[in-house]
Write a structure and sequence with these properties.
The chain is of the alpha/beta class. Helix content is 30%, strand content 17%.
């Protein structure tokens, strides 16, 4: 056995070390002989070295080891080193198909993050042209202005993950939809009818609304959210209709807002693909601090969406 890659080994005293820095799994080992102490500290610089026999069992019991012969795989995601600590079984994201509709800076951030996280196929949908307002760090460039967003996004995805496909006839396992102002009520019902889990991202004047992840038949849907809003504001249906039928040209998306909103959308999709979907939770991400505010939602009693056939909790790729 060897130590999980990326774990730090830090000296705490003459005969004690700390393995790991995250409180969820960090442990202290005390009463160490000089040779054991030196061997453990050496792991901080040479993590592939074998563990001292007497301590291997303790570290294995704490879940901090992997097998010596565990295959490394080709170009694993940057987070792969933490998978033994976070997941009972390694995620199988390479077989997943995820669609992203709306490829402004927020949608592009989501697509690139999903590609970097090991998602095997991304379906990119946005025929609009890249504008000067789309140009930003790590995304569209000035030379991309005037080209179709989905074409440029496909090239950028390949730059991040050369093995990620951007074309497939397979149905997606998840869908991210980025809208301006509000989610189209008709589109929300159409998405529910497809049975495909989906994550809405709504960009407003100075904030973004991300989520909740909608699992058709399990937890609240987007129509539930509209009904809850109408309970508080009876004029909401008329306002939503105006926002979705008389759309103005999209304003520029602040880079730090796009980064946070895109990251939250990515996390929702990866949670689904990894078998731990989080339904009923959305985030409001306001400028200027872009600190997400969590909101919890329940299925609305007048919606009826939970009468649908529920999607299995591990609604990821086979």
């Amino acid at each position: 056995m060897r130590l999980v890659p990326g774990l730090r080994v830090l000296r705490r005293g003459d005969d004690e070390v700390q393995v790991g820095t995250d409180p969820r799994w960090a442990v202290r080992l005390g009463g160490l002989a000089a040779g054991e102490l030196d061997a453990l500290l050496a792991l901080d610089e040479h993590p592939l070295s074998p563990l001292p026999d007497r301590l291997a069992a303790s570290l294995t019991e704490a879940g901090l080891t992997v097998a010596d012969d565990e295959p490394a795989g080709a170009a694993p995601p940057a987070e792969a080193a933490t998978w033994p600590l976070l997941h009972a079984t390694p995620p199988a994201r390479g077989a997943a198909v995820v669609a992203v509709m709306g490829l402004g800076p927020t949608g592009l951030t989501t697509a690139l993050a999903l590609a970097a996280a090991g998602v095997g196929t991304l379906l990119l949908d946005d025929e609009r042209l890249v504008t000067a307002a789309d140009v930003g760090a790590g995304g569209y460039r000035w030379t991309d202005v005037g080209s179709p967003r989905e074409t440029v996004a496909a090239r950028l995805v390949r730059d991040v993950a050369p093995t990620c496909l951007t074309d497939s006839t397979r149905e997606p396992h998840a869908l991210v939809v980025v809208d301006q102002g509000a989610t189209d009520p008709g589109q929300a019902l159409t998405l529910l009818g497809t049975g495909v889990p989906h994550v809405p991202v709504v960009l407003r004047e100075a904030d973004a609304l991300v989520g909740p992840l909608v699992l058709p038949g399990a937890g609240p849907c987007l129509h539930c959210l509209d009904l809850h809003r109408a309970d508080v504001d009876p004029a909401w249906p008329r306002v939503a209709l105006a926002l979705t039928t008389r759309r103005t040209a999209p304003a520029g998306e602040a880079a730090h807002l796009a980064a946070v909103a895109g990251g939250l959308a990515t996390a929702a999709v990866l949670g689904l693909l990894d078998g731990a979907p989080a339904t009923g939770t959305s985030y409001e991400v306001p400028l200027p601090d872009v600190v997400p505010r969590e909101r919890r939602w329940a299925a609305h009693p007048h919606c009826g969406c939970t009468a649908l056939v529920a999607v299995p909790a591990a609604a990821g790729p086979p």
